[in-house]
Amino acid sequence: MKRTYWLDLFTGATWNEFLEAGGNVSGFRESRWTTVQKIKPGDYLICYLTGISRFIGILEVLEKPFKDKSQIWKDEEFPARLKVRVIINLTPNTAIPVLALRERLSIFRDLKSAHAWTGAFRSSPSKWSNEDGDIILNAIQEAKENPIERPVDLRKLNYRPKGFKSKIGTVTMPAPDNEEPGSKDNKSYTDHTEVQYLLLKLGSDMGFEVWAARNDRGREYRGKKIASIPRIKSELPNQFDEATNRTIEMIDVLWLQKNNFVAAFEIESTTSIYSGLLRLSDLVAMQPNVNIPLYIVAPDERREKVISEINRATFSRLTPRLSEICRYISFSALRDKVKQIESIVQYVKPEILEDLSETCEVNE
Questions:
Q1: Are 99 and 87 in contact, with CB atoms under 8 Å apart?
Q2: Could you tell me the pTM of the whole model?
Q3: Which of 9, 283, 340, 349 is 20 to 30 A (C-alpha) from 204?
């Protein structure tokens, strides 16, 4: 008999709270009750840590669903509940990165965009195919018997912005910023130029043609002008209407291959982080079927702000939602990766961006 698998999403915090409470009750939001009622005793829950994108365990459902509001989790009730037992339990360091199973899981097949696979992790519980479930179960069993330690970014593990239900889905309500929106000091300007230069040079070294926003080409990083980077293009291909082309021309960094867009990057080193998001939002609004992987690159200390802002209602009304197709890259992660691959950069593929970046989606 084939087993039924369901995805069960956790943050690092909610996973720890689940285990500390005994590891015998898993819960979901009230809005997921209809789906939870479809889960049967004997079904398996695939446990996935959203912040670090890793599979961490397997739970077996023991009884029919029930509702209960007794406290297990600190920040939310998750009243749609299931009695479970832990079949396999890994640690965050030994948990399996989803991208390690890229070649085997069906969620990576026939993607309409580079980040489309993240849609499979937008809400839980959600039913998964027997094929993918078996692959993940076997991989977790193997990881239990032969663990591989992989470093974990504790900020990614422990933080997710709180989502609020709305008519258009789950959105965030960012806290007010105490600084003056749009302010730009000398450090922000210097950081922006450095990161822009690193992204342009990285793309060029990987063999791509690159594009820098026209108004940035006179900038210099360590005595080297942006305009002097090899393979920088003077004109972009006219694939879209005039309004779209003008929007694309203002994007900080583009990678291209034979006139096809490989990736688009907006760098946000200022307080407001709004201009880049609005530019990407305009692009998606005008070309909803655009198939360009989008990235917001921002300082480490702005990470929470970026993820909160990108899930605001105004960006969540887009089709697709901006958070579904735009990922976050931290300044430190970019700098570290550039140093790490310096000697082999010509052999590196654009898939490196998946490992370098993280999702901006808030899970339901």
A1: no
A2: 0.65
A3: 283
